[in-house]
Amino acid sequence: MSGKTLAEKILSDKSGDDVRAGDYVEATVDTMLTHDITGPLSFQTFYEVAGEDASPQNPESILLAIDHHAPADGVQAANNHNILREFGEKHGVAQFEVGDGICHQLVVEEGFVKPGDLVIGADSHSTTFGGLGAFGTGVGSSDLGTAMATGELWFRVPETRRFEVTGELSPGVYAKDLILKFIGDVGFAGATYMAAEYTGSAIESLPIHERIVLSNMAIEMGGKAGLVEPDQRTVAFLEAQTGESVELDPNLYSDDDAEFASVERYIGEEIEPQVSKPSNPENAVSVSEVAGTSIDQLFVGTCTNGRYEDIKIVADILAGETLAQGTRMVVVPASRRVYQKALETGVFQTLIDAGAIIQSAGCGPCAGYHQGVLGDDDVCLATANRNFPGREGSMQSQVYLASPATVGASALYGEITDPRSVESKLNRHDDYILSEVQR
């Protein structure tokens, strides 16, 4: 019999069975997360399954975050926040407040994930944790509520579509460009209910914060999970981030003779900066094809590119400069610790001097709720993950997706700009450890 993929190995371990793609399993869940939009329904299901007086099966495995409508933008949002607070206090689960940050970032910062874990979240971008070698996936609120009651959930073991990038990435090309390229090539549904696995020398050389970007946007091609094989760099990152020892299972990789649905091969040096045109992430093209497109707003943030390293890239480009006339920039850090790091190092001062608006940590205008939504005919260039019609505001607005470097370069001219035009200002930042930054 052939070897196994990384996805098959993790789900075999968590189910206690020898399983392959297509099998159905009941698997033990290590971590569960929900937020102020999906939480109330998750709790309702939990009580329906477990009973009104019950407690979660493993309360230490649950993370609640107030991140989408944060701060509250209306009475309903404020009431939902209170529902999360009450559930967290009643059951002693980890509950993060307004301004603490996005649930996906907090899972990483607070040590809720390690290689080989099974992580579910009532949010589609829970694929994020594959960047650390975990099987992370989004589920419905009802599924999450059931898992809170039982500690387990059923899955169909996914096939794996592999993306192999050899060589090195050129200056101005980052993980965001890679994932936009992949999505553009295979389409928005090209990996539906598959595990997208990212491998090759170019992937291995990426810092953890960029690997996370690849996994985060696996869902934008329909992926059930997005996986990067964990290595000693993963271990070093997690140990520094959390201050806890991490033991790496040496079996957490896809076997050489594993069966893949397909293998897409790329040469790192041949990939150019990418931009996804409205109104689907699959509309990815080389930046040269849309260069010169006028922009009204630039948005830096989200669970995809709201980390300190992403924000610093933009600040590096804007240092000593100002935003192009007629443009505005909204910056929303992924967590309070990211906010504090950017404050302490002068990154925010650089952005404020350039004319940017700094918002409190959270999801910001990513889903069009508040903190900078778009009006009719507004054009936005964002480090976000989705650009469907109305995603960041008006149905008549247009959103283009790009890397922080492309957003930073474009901010100088008020139009989409190739980041290689400011190559002297570009850096590939390594991971910044936030363990010493207090919430």
From TrEMBL:
PANTHER family with a match to the protein in the record: HOMOACONITASE, MITOCHONDRIAL-RELATED (PTHR43822), ISOPROPYLMALATE_CITRAMALATE ISOMERASE LARGE SUBUNIT (PTHR43822:SF22)
Names of the cofactor(s): [4Fe-4S] cluster
Subunit and interaction comment: Heterodimer of LeuC and LeuD.
Residues binding [4Fe-4S] cluster, per UniProt: C303, C363, C366
Reaction(s) catalysed (UniProt annotation): (2R,3S)-3-isopropylmalate = (2S)-2-isopropylmalate
Keyword flag 4Fe-4S: yes
Record's function text: Catalyzes the isomerization between 2-isopropylmalate and 3-isopropylmalate, via the formation of 2-isopropylmaleate.
Protein name (database record): 3-isopropylmalate dehydratase large subunit
Alphabetical keyword list: 4Fe-4S, Amino-acid biosynthesis, Branched-chain amino acid biosynthesis, Iron, Iron-sulfur, Leucine biosynthesis, Lyase, Metal-binding
Enzyme class: lyase
KW 4Fe-4S (keyword) present: yes
Pfam families per the UniProt record, alphabetical: Aconitase (PF00330)
InterPro entries, sorted: Acnase/IPM_dHydase_lsu_aba_1/3, Acoase/IPM_deHydtase_lsu_aba, Aconitase_4Fe-4S_dom, HAcnase/IPMdehydase_lsu_prok, Homoacnase/IPMdehydase_lsu, IPM_dehydratase_rel_enz, IPMI_cat
Family: Belongs to the aconitase/IPM isomerase family. LeuC type 2 subfamily.
GO molecular function: 3-isopropylmalate dehydratase activity; 4 iron, 4 sulfur cluster binding; metal ion binding
Cofactor note: Binds 1 [4Fe-4S] cluster per subunit.
Superkingdom per UniProt: Archaea
Domain Aconitase/3-isopropylmalate dehydratase large subunit alpha/beta/alpha: 9-290
EC number(s) recorded for this UniProt protein: 4.2.1.33
Gene Ontology biological-process entries: L-leucine biosynthetic process
